[in-house]
Amino acid sequence: MALRQHYASGEVAFFDYAGATLPMTDRDTGAVTAAHVFVAVLGYSQAVYAEVQPDQAVASWVAGHVPAFGAWGGVPARLVPDNLKAGVTHPHPYEPVLPASYQECAEYYGTVVVPARVRRPQDKASVEQGV
Questions:
Q1: What pLDDT, in 10s, does the model give residues 57-84?
Q2: Can you give the pLDDT at residue 117?
Q3: Contact, 96 vs 115, CB < 8 A?
Q4: Which is nearest to 80 in space by CA: 63, 98, 67?
Q5: CA distance 71 to 78
Q6: Per-residue pLDDT averaged across 12-34, rounded?
Q7: Does residue 107 carry a pLDDT above 70?
Q8: SS (H, E, C) the chain
């Protein structure tokens, strides 16, 4: 049995990295490296934003949010990231610790970050489908 979750427009967005990496070739050197796919999905419209990033560092994670907000034309009231190291420094059911730059980004855009529960993919089913 599945419980359908309904969201109001602009209420929530889900964020994650796709599991598989893609080969990325440097045009100048010809070196091939692994590229990571950043995926963001709006809860109400299911609009997907995806971009390729060189790594899963905190700087890349935060940098992926800004163009997603621009593509959507606004900032959701709540951000729900997966519990990866770039998004959550220390997962906790009630008071998770976020990287400082991610917390500052959320404060700057006037939104809150509520990470998905650990090992609960149903908390971010929209982005799992987008991946």
A1: 999 999 999 999 999 999 999 999 988 8
A2: 74
A3: yes
A4: 98
A5: 17
A6: 91
A7: yes
A8: CCCCCCCCCCCEEEEEECCCCEEEECCCCCCEEEEEEEEEEECCCCCEEEEEECCCCHHHHHHHHHHHHHHHCCCCCEEEECCCCCCCCECCCCCCECCHHHHHHHHHCCCEECCCCCCCHHHHHHHHHHC
